[in-house]
Amino acid sequence: MQRTDQHYQQQRVGDVRHRDDLSPLGGVTSSSELFCDRRQLLKKFGMGLGAIATTYLLQRNAAAGIGSTGIPTGGVINPTHHLPTAKRVIYLFQAGGPSQLESWDYKPLLIERQGEPLPDSVRQGQRLTGMSGNQAVLPLVGSTFKFARHGGSGTWVSDVMPYMAKQVDRIAVIKSMYTEAINHDPAITFLQTGNQIAGRPSIGAWLHYGLGSDNDNLPTFVVLITKGKGGQPLYARLWGSGFLPARHQGVQFRSGKEPVLYLSNPPGVTRESRRKMLDRLQQLHALEQGRLHDPELSTRIEQFEMSYRMQSSVPEVADFSDEPQHVLDAYGADATRPGSFAANCILARRLAERGVKFIQLYHQGWDHHGNVPGGMKTQCQETDQPAAALLDDLQQRGLLEDTLVIWGGEFGRTNYSQGKLSADNYGRDHHPRCFSMWMAGGGIRGGVSYGETCEFGYNVVADGVHVRDFHATLMHTMGIDHQRFTAKFQGLDARLTGVEPCRVVREILL
Q: What are the sequence ranges of the domains in the chain?
């Protein structure tokens, strides 16, 4: 009930007049402040407490060095926890699990002991998948590809990747990645969301939520998938927003006349009429928002407005007609084939130039349970030259320094043959105990080979890097302390890196 009684108000004001010590501002300073009602008093008093609390937090953070070196953002982390070394990420995800033994992790012992059973002392009772767990023998098999040292760093690289072999002094190869997931779905979900169980926000969604957008006319988080590739399925939840607002989910760009579905106006609808429709729709949403206070209503109108702006920005960024021929040639013969890995690498660079913060490329087909030699050759022909050209392109445009580029899959492959082993053919099963990834740009120290696996290529023996360590390191380059970046979910402070101990791999940072 609203109190309007004059005697009541004067009585309360009289209390304040004689209790100047209650004022957080140091006392009543004017006669007009004496005549206030209870609401005004509480407002002044509350704002005073807020000022005191803010001053305390600023002083505490300054003493701890928190926030003193960050940069402003448009997200919930403002400023960043520390000075970022990367402004954006291009993640070349190789879905299916590329074999580290045919690419980055040279193991000559496997060639010497070709066909011998995997020693129990090496396996140590670790679980196998049902695809090779019932084999009577697990025969060791070395790579059919030759390895050689490259660059000033002397990094070992397989001859199936001649273009990336020339980039080794720009990249940090992590040979000691490991995960708990042994099957594709939980393993990919873990790499993309920090949890093997579906429903958590993806990396790009976390970054959008935390850091905001650098371009009002393009999505902050874009997904590109190589067209026409088979293999393990990819799900939209891999680039979803989970329990974060829906506006933070990734937007998939497709090849063809309509890169983003349902973006174009239907026949007979002009841009002007669409603008009028959105204006009226926004008014209706505002009325409903005033009644329900549902944040998803605000998200919906924001998405409508973004779609309207993207009608002009998306066709421009997807149009390669202004790309010089020598740039297209550098990416290889597939560069002009829409939806190819090469074309998506060019599109990723164009998106990065325009301020898109997280660009996720998926390339399927690395799940080689049989015919590893033929499968690896095909996959590397599609990806090796474009990936190397992307690094060159970014470098020449001054973008590599603050663009983090990542290459890798969800796990590795076994050092033994799945199925029949012949002189020139073999398969490899899933192997979570060790696999290889590389990172470049964005504060990464080039010419590094980090971590070590055993001589059999089965176990990590030095400097292991867990999936959570990888996530913590990625966040660090973007100016985020992974332990301080949380979002409320089911009453808990959830974060990308979870609750298990993890670390930033500082040894690969500049």
A: 6-64, 91-121+139-262+322-508
